[in-house]
Write a structure and sequence with these properties.
Blueprint: H1 3-22, H2 55-75, E1 85-94, H3 95-98, E2 100-108, E3 117-124, E4 131-138, E5 165-166, E6 169-170, H4 179-182, H5 184-189, E7 193-198, H6 231-246, E8 252-262, H7 264-274, E9 279-285, H8 303-309, H9 332-337, E10 343-349, H10 357-373, E11 395-400, H11 408-422
Parallel strand pairs: 4-7, 4-8, 8-9, 9-10, 10-11
Antiparallel strand pairs: 1-2, 2-3, 3-7, 5-6
Helix pairs in contact: 6-7
The site of alpha-D-glucopyranuronic acid has 8 residues, from helix 8.
Length: 429
């Protein structure tokens, strides 16, 4: 072959090979061919039966394998990152009686028709340098968390049963309706910033995906793939884009970003932390099935039930486990293990049996071998603690009396846990 021809052939083939190398592996067995594990599978044993015994093997082999497995069989592959353009809409330096600066930032991702994230950021004014920041999605819109008429009302689909929502649209009546749920002033007083956005900004919580980010990652006419991301992965993608912004904001400490979320948004926070090491700590609160509870659990919500009630949350392949959760080649302890060596807190309520608080304790326990391998500690308890007693080890656990909800007292525990693992914000020591 002439030299010029050879170059031409290489020029054509190399980009193709590069694209193939970059594409997800997608080479795992059919669900029917997977072996059954009635107990939580050993997080250190690879799909091929080989056990990893060193930190290097965990990082090089097992961690990437688990990330692939979770995407392939459960959450779907997360969409690729997009370049984030941020526009600060307005700033109020005298919020909370002068204690904090409040601002709203629009994050956009290229084409004008692509959904935008409207991030509310509250930063304490009394600070000696960059502060740690909580970041999470909310259920009701930013306007529900702080009573300030400047905060924009969401213009996208809203949950019908939340305060101040009429015909699936946000109204002024919802302003401040969820102040206690996020209890932002308490975080300010403890020296933390809080960043949050409405989940519907990224993907409305319904099976119809037309109004979310989904269509913007598909080519015209392209059919959905059984391993395409579901809504929880789409929300986690959104959380990652918020982190893209936060790590560049000089008021914030990029090494102390804390992902937080309640329930389905707790599932999102844990997935986001597992897949993004810029998140220093994860607090999935009462996240339950598909998040912090075992898929093999016999208490509360089952895989079949969650896939039936919320078919859009996971990928199509996850439905194949409806009657065989024991075939999953992982369980949720492996998602926690992906966060290692970073701290993770599971917090629960006694009456919230739907989220299986006891099963969640077992999940943390089962993630321990990976934390120990990395020299990161573990869960310093062999049985469930009494109510209201925080186990503040790297794998943290907490249960309090009451129902499925996020409260001011829960936030106090989140703050204590963050203080312990990331250090108290300066000026608060
Ligand atoms: C339902 C669902 C749970 C979910 C919860 C919530 O109860 O079954 O999986 O965590 O909603 O998000 O509030």
């Amino acid at each position: 072959m002439q030299r010029t021809h050879l170059f031409l052939v290489l020029a054509l083939i190399l980009p193709l090979l590069a694209a193939l190398a970059a594409a997800p592996a997608r080479k795992f067995p059919a669900v029917a061919d997977l072996p059954a594990h009635t107990e939580l599978p050993d997080p250190l044993v690879m799909l091929n039966g080989k056990r990893v015994t060193t930190k290097e093997q965990w990082i090089k082999d097992r961690r990437p394998e688990l990330k692939e497995l979770f995407q392939y069989y459960m959450y779907g592959y997360l969409p690729p990152p997009r370049k984030v353009e941020s526009t600060t809409r307005w700033v109020n330096k005298r919020a909370f009686d002068g204690k904090a600066t409040l601002k709203e930032i629009t994050l956009s991702f290229g084409p004008a028709e692509m959904p935008k994230i409207h991030l509310l950021l509250v930063v304490p004014n009394k600070r000696k340098g960059p502060v740690p920041v909580f970041v999470g999605l909310n259920f009701c819109g930013n306007h529900a968390l702080v009573k300030d008429p400047t905060i924009r009302l969401p213009t996208v689909w809203m949950y019908p049963n939340h305060p101040g929502v009429k015909n699936n649209r946000a109204t002024d009546e919802g302003r401040g309706a969820e102040i206690d749920v996020w209890s932002i002033e308490q975080s300010i007083d403890r020296g933390y910033a809080v960043a949050t956005f409405y989940d519907g900004d990224v993907d409305p919580d319904r099976p119809d995906t037309r109004d979310g980010i989904q269509p913007h990652f598909r080519l015209e006419g392209e059919k959905p793939d059984p391993h395409d991301w579901g809504t929880i992965a789409a929300w986690a993608w959104g959380l990652h884009r918020a982190v893209d912004y936060l790590v560049k904001d000089r008021d914030l400490d990029k090494d102390r970003v804390i992902a937080v979320g309640h329930s389905r948004l707790g599932k999102t926070a844990l997935l986001a932390a597992a897949f993004d090491e810029r998140i220093a700590l994860a607090i999935p609160h009462q996240a339950g099935c598909g998040g912090t509870a075992p898929s093999r659990g016999k208490v509360g919500e089952s895989v079949k039930r969650i896939n039936t009630s919320f078919p859009h949350w996971f990928d199509a392949t996850f439905k194949e486990f409806n009657d065989h959760p024991e075939k999953l080649p992982f369980d949720q302890h492996c998602l926690v293990a992906l966060c290692a060596p970073r701290a993770v807190l599971f917090s629960n309520a006694v009456e919230d049996t739907w989220a299986n608080p006891e099963g969640q304790f077992q999940v943390l326990k089962a993630a321990e071998p990976v934390y120990r391998l990395l020299g990161a500690g573990g869960l310093d308890a062999d049985k469930m603690p009494p109510n209201n007693k925080l186990i503040a080890s790297t794998l943290g656990y907490y249960i309090r009396p009451g129902k499925h909800s996020m409260t001011k007292d829960d936030w106090k525990v989140f703050l204590d846990f963050a203080d312990k693992h990331l250090g108290k914000p300066s000026g608060k020591e």
